[in-house]
């Protein structure tokens, strides 16, 4: 049911050929996030590079089904992606680009179906492991959970301020737009809270399994990430054999939004 709904939100616009290499873009867990909105600044560059794009709304976000996740959410998302690819008739290995929760999901998919993945780009996520230098729940995570518990404009602003490095450009209009997107489906918010209540460890720690991944992997991180601290990115890059790590200075948890030109250059060069 969930995967079917995700498949219905898959979009493959652009001038890419039917048999062009496929890139699955996997979004993060921020309230109001969708696959289409999360990668708005990447799609033109990737389409121009001749790639076919698939951008699902993962279960519990956007136009996907409402779901209370009583298991490892990365595994749920991986199965949803498998269903989306099957529904889209994609059977050749795909490129996975995931940010935050989407990076966790990409890793889960690669561990479960390594033959279906050509390469991976992991931005600001990839394992449920803990930072060695920061509290168990970093400031950005606590701010996000506060919003899910009580969705208000003030709490949305606090969350967004934690996500980016420089919040000076964050306007009241931007906050209201993100709040409206989050409230478009209030069931997703309440389901997220209930999911945490029933299964607190929503993202299992697969740090010990990263060495099993032999795919070409690019890890991208913001040096000032207050949601998933930089040392997590270092752990991922060290444990995946041959992975490359690119750290963007003066950048927070969403490098694809804060530094789109740099990220687009990294993506197109790596995926090509």
**Helix-strand category:** alpha/beta
Apparent shape: globular
What is the number of domains?
A: 1
> What helical percentage do the residues reach?
40-55%
Q: Which CATH first-tier class would you pick?
A: Alpha Beta
Please count the beta strands (DSSP E, at least 2 residues each). Answer: 6
Contiguous uncertain segments of 5+ residues:
1-15
Distance between the termini: 34 Å
Describe this structure in words.
This protein has 272 residues and is an alpha/beta fold. The chain has one domain: Rossmann fold (3-Layer(aba) Sandwich). It contains 12 helices and 6 strands. Strand 3 (94-99), helix 5 and strand 4 form a beta-alpha-beta unit.
Concise structural overview:
By secondary structure, this protein is of the alpha/beta class. The chain has a single domain, classed as Rossmann fold (3-Layer(aba) Sandwich). It is 43% helix and 12% strand.
Set down the secondary structure blueprint.
Elements: H1 2-8, E1 22-26, H2 35-38, H3 43-48, E2 52-54, H4 73-87, E3 94-99, H5 101-112, E4 117-123, H6 139-149, H7 153-163, H8 172-183, H9 186-198, E5 217-222, H10 230-239, E6 244-248, H11 255-258, H12 260-271
Parallel strand pairs: 1-2, 1-3, 3-4, 4-5, 5-6
Task: Fill in the keyword field for this structure.
6-stranded parallel beta sheet, alpha/beta, disordered N terminus, 12 helices, globular, 272 residues, Rossmann fold
């Amino acid at each position: 049911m969930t995967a079917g709904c995700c498949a219905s939100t898959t979009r493959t616009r652009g001038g890419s050929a039917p048999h062009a290499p496929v890139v699955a873009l996997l979004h993060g867990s921020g309230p109001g996030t969708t696959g289409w909105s999360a990668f708005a600044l990447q799609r033109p560059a990737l389409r121009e590079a001749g790639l076919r794009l698939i951008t699902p709304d993962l279960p519990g976000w956007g136009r996907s089904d409402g779901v209370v996740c009583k298991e490892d959410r990365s595994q749920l998302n991986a199965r949803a992606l498998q269903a989306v690819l099957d529904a889209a008739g994609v059977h050749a290995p795909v490129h996975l680009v995931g940010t935050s929760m989407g990076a966790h999901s990409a890793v889960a998919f690669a561990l479960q179906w390594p033959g279906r993945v050509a390469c991976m780009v992991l931005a600001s996520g990839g394992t449920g492991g803990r930072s060695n230098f920061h509290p168990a729940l970093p400031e950005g995570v606590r701010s996000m959970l506060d919003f899910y518990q009580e969705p208000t404009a003030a709490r949305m602003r606090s969350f967004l301020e934690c996500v980016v490095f420089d919040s000076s450009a964050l306007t009241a209009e931007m906050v209201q737009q993100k709040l409206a997107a989050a409230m478009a489906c209030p069931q997703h918010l309440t389901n997220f809270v209930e999911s945490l209540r029933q299964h607190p460890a929503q993202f299992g720690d697969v740090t010990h399994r990263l060495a099993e991944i032999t795919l070409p992997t690019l890890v991208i991180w913001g040096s000032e990430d207050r949601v998933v601290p930089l040392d997590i990115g270092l752990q991922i890059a060290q444990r995946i054999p041959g992975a490359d790590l690119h750290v963007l200075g003066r950048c927070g948890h969403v490098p694809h939004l804060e530094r789109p030109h740099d990220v687009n250059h990294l993506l197109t060069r790596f995926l090509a």
